[in-house]
Amino acid sequence: MSLDPAFTTHVRHFGPFETNLRTRELRKNGSKIRLHGAPFEVLEALLERPGDLVTREELFRHLWPNGTFVDFDNNLNSAVKRLRDALGDSADAPRYIETLPRLGYRLIVEVSEPQAVAPRPELREFGVPDVVSPTSYSLKSRLLRHLEGNRMRWAATLFVIAGIGAAYWFTGRPAPPKAAAPSALRTIAVLPFRNVSKESNLDYLERGLSRLVAEQLSFERGLTVRSSDSSLRYLDPTMDLHAAARDLQVDTLVRGNYARDKLNIWLAAEIVDASRNQTLWRGTLQAGADSPVALSGLVVDRVSVALRLENTISRRTAALSTNAGALLSADAFEQFLRGLAWEADSAPRAAWALHEKVLNSAPEFGLARAHLGFAMIAEHYSNFRPQEAAIVEKAFQHYQRAVAANSAPPAILSLGGLYLVELGHVDKGATLLQHAVRLNPDFAEAHLWLSQAFRYAGMLDESRVEAELAMRLDPSLREYTTVNTYLYRGEYAKFLESLPRTVVTPRSIFYRGLALYAQGDREAAGREFARAYELNPALLHAQYGQAIALTLRGANQSALALLRRLEMQGHPDGEMQYKLAQAFAVAGDADAALRALRMSVGAGFVCSDYFLNDPLLRTLRDLQQFQAVVQASRQSQEALRRVLVK
Q: What's the whole-model pTM score?
């Protein structure tokens, strides 16, 4: 596969790792490793100058520009430690990052970039004249030719533009005639819209606009929208779109190319049914150059027509309404889309600042308010600081105002709700998720994450209903998630049967080990824990499993040393604290297990019925302190039930 030079400049290889500085992703042997916030910023700075000393002062300016006041030493040390943990590196015997005492750090591994090749002839000749009109120069045909040359035999793409008062026309195949709605839900991913003009300052539309379109599509009944962030690596114009559809577990793909002249933005796009190798729509559309606000709605409308979906235009228009749009200047809407691009790039602090600016000029623009709430929560999630819990309350208030204005799409409600649940605010997270499924009862991911909220609240019957509904709406969900509700209901055989079969990850392997342990097959469990750790030793689940595996091999002290290091790191997610309690209990440290269990309950994981029946907590059951924790868990569970069941 050839690589576009604009793509290769963002990719770095070192050892078994690949880093994409645009999408802010780190992968090891192709598997994504979670790394966000300050640790990724440190890695980015080191990758810019491999082999050279990067001083602590330079890192301070890179991580905290504009004189931001932070506890620099502790924050930097923590960021470097988290980066080393992700890489599986050690300060004492470094393979990647060397510490130069009192000076800074140095990347000591060779770094390379993918070999770029010359673009195809039609890309080299592609240009945008100063003024474009249908009579003087057919930019639309150029865009379509550019798209055609890169689309394989059946390529998949949508591009549409929407908005109030935008002029548009399209060429190519007309929309198919209306037919009966399909019996199964469509699954769709919106790929990043690709900038093929010479204006790099338009790059923000690649991620910002695709994210906005995906969110607006989340209103549509009969459609499951895959997270737009998971599509960001598909900017390469020569990509195998069939492989992309398979990787994203969707049957429909959307992509497009855009360019701008002095007067207009032009878009060429396709909607393709990948499951049937059938192009559903192709065309070129046009909007005023200062009106990117006009882009998202028509895209959504073309998808609705092409896929014969129920039209929910009234709710979608409320989210991006004429009145709200009229409040925004072109600059303000550009800031909003740039904020969406920063969200897609896992930079919530930057998005937060831009959304605040937009709301300062247009406080009634509810969609920006929903995204401000999300950016605040995402920043807190990425750089968890318990002392800043007040941020969550402010973010939730922004969400509430957006919901009251009918301006929060199901997608942004769902993702914010998930983060809130894992931050220990189960009541607030479930509230957002319940509103998401009211807006679109067919939005499978919202049901899946609502199942997680119910699970954390110990409401296992309700959790099972939501999980099974999500799987019926989108069977492909089972390939990248685990239905832990079966595990906590003691349905171990059903849990094992429900695990992913095609996309096997270290996380799912760890959970297989837990179920086997609970069934009494310690030998098989130990093998699964060891396999998960071998595949990704930086994964927290795998490290908990490694501690249990060490215990099963009789190496209790090594297991306890590992677990105590993990305990010192802390984690906001109550379910992960529960895994720590399980591992401590198996390793024989009852005091530490009880401590972690209390932390789990305090963080909103109150699955008290399973606490009493969990085979991994067997050694704690007769302890008075354990019974006290279970009682506290039941009280919290009842309080949550009163909030969640209305």
A: 0.72
